Amino acid sequence: MSLTVADLARGAMTEFQEKLRQQHEDSMHRELEALLATANKEEAEISRKDFDGFKKLFHRFLQVKGPSVDWAKINRPPEDSIQPYDRIKAKGLPDNITASLNKLVVVKLNGGLGTSMGCKGPKSLISVRNENTFLDLTVQQIEHLNKTFNTDVPLVLMNSFNTDEDTKKILQKYSHHRVNIHTFNQSRYPRINKESLLPIAKGMGLNGANTEAWYPPGHGDIYASFHNSGLLDKLLAEGREYIFVSNIDNLGATVDLFILHHLMSQPADKRCEFIMEVTDKTRADVKGGTLIQYEDHLRLLEIAQVPKAHVDEFKSVTKFKIFNTNNLWISLPAIKRLQEKNAMEMEIIVNPKTLDGGLNVIQLETAVGAAIKSFKNAMGVNVPRSRFLPVKTSSDLLLVMSNLYSMDAGSLTMSKKREFPTTPHVKLGSSFTKVQEFLKRFENIPDMLELDHLTVSGDVTFGKNVSLKGTVIIIANHGDRIDIPAGAMLENKIVSGNLRILDH
C-alpha cells in the first residue's frame, strides 16, 4: 500500500503539531519555575503542588481538541442507574443511624465571591434570612444534627485564595457551637494568555499587576487539594467514610439520612462510591449538566462539552429530563485511591475571560461531578426539587427571604400554607441586582404564598405588607418610577407607567 502525498502531509502536520505542543509545554514549565523562584520557601512548597496539578491539566489541554464527546455514543442512563428518591426513602432508617453519621463529613464549596450580587468578600457571608448568612445556616444545620443524634459530624469548607482570609476571621464566632470546622484551600492556578498560552503573572504575589493573574480552577479541584492538604488522611484516620459535598449557596443541600443509610447498607463488594443527586429539569434549568451513559460509564455532560449543532437538543426537557444539583456523596477511601493512582478523569472546561485592560486569557477548570465516571458503582438519585434551592441572584434571594419558606434549625422548607409545591418564577430587573439596592427597594418582603410569576423592571419600590398573587408584572419605563403602596394586594395584574407616592 503506497503512501499518498496527503498521507505524507498529514504525517508532517502531526509531527509539526507534536513539536509545537512540546514547545508550549517546555515554555510553560520554564515560566512556572521562574514564578516559583519569586516566592518564599513555604509559599513555594504549596504552589509547587498546585503547579504540578496545573501542568497535568495543561498537558491534557494541549492534547485534546474539539468537543470532548462523540454525540452518536451518547445514551440515556440505564433505568437502575438513577433511582427515584422515594425508593431509597421507602427502606426507612435503622435504629442506629448515629453509627452512619459518625462516618460522614459535610463539605461545602466556599471558594466564590459575592461579586455577582454586588457584595464584597465571600458569598457565604451574605445575609439570606433573619440576618443569618449562608455560613450561619450551614453551621446551625450541622449543630442541630449533632445534638439530635448525639454525633459529631464535622464541617469542612473548601476556600479559595479569594475567600480564605475573610472566612477564617468569621469562624471564631462558632467556637462555642457543637460542630468542628476545618478548612482547606483550593489550588491557585495561573491564567494564561490566549495567544501565547503562557502565564500572565509576573510573580507569585496577588496584588498590584498580579491581581487578575490567578484563579481557583473550578470545584473539580476538590480531589487534589483535599488530598494535598492532609485533611483527607486525617479524616480517614478518624474512621470517616463518606463526604457530602454541595455548594454553600444551595440552601436545600442538607444532610439526608435516607441517602446516607442507602450508602452505608450496601454489601462491601458492591459499595457505591459516588451518588449524584439529580432533579427534574424545568425550563429554568436548561443549562444544567445532565447524566448520560457513555462507553459503559455514567458520565456528567455539561453544556460546554456539547457540539454547537446539538445545543438545542441538550437543552430539551424531553430528551435529557434531569440535571445535576451538585449535591454529591463520595467515598473518602475511593478519593484517596484514585488520587494516588492519578486516575481521576475529568473533562477540561476552557473558560475564556477578557480582563479589565482588554487582555484575552483562558482559565482551565474542571467540575467535581465530572469525576463520576472514575468511581465504582456510581449512581444518580432523583431527589425532590426542594434539595436544590440555590441563591445565585437577588431574584433567588427574594424567594428565600419570603414567607414561601419557613426556617427550622437552619433548614428552609416550603411553607405548609402554599397550596402548590412549585417555586414561583421571579425575574427582577437590573435595579435589583446588588443586594444593597435590592434591600432599599422593599420596606419589607411581600407576601408571596400565592404567587406564580413575578417580573419587575425599572425603578420600582415596594411599601410595607404588599401581597402578590398569581402573575404580577410591574414595568416602570425609563425615567418613570413606580411605588407600590403599603398594603397593596396585586393579583394577576400588570402595572406600568408612572406611579409616584410622595409623603407630604
TrEMBL record:
GO molecular function: UTP:glucose-1-phosphate uridylyltransferase activity
Chain positions recorded as UTP binding sites: 123, 186, 218, 249, 392
Catalytic activity: alpha-D-glucose 1-phosphate + UTP + H(+) = UDP-alpha-D-glucose + diphosphate
Listed GO biological process terms: glycogen biosynthetic process; UDP-alpha-D-glucose metabolic process
Binding site for substrate: 219
Record's keyword terms, sorted: Nucleotidyltransferase, Transferase
Enzyme Commission numbers on file: 2.7.7.9
Pathway field: Glycan biosynthesis; glycogen biosynthesis
Role: UTP--glucose-1-phosphate uridylyltransferase catalyzing the conversion of glucose-1-phosphate into UDP-glucose, a crucial precursor for the production of glycogen.
Subunit structure: Homooctamer.
PANTHER family referenced in this protein's UniProt entry, alphabetically: PTHR43511
UniProt record similarity statement: Belongs to the UDPGP type 1 family.
Protein name: UTP--glucose-1-phosphate uridylyltransferase
Organism for this UniProt entry: Oryzias melastigma (Marine medaka)
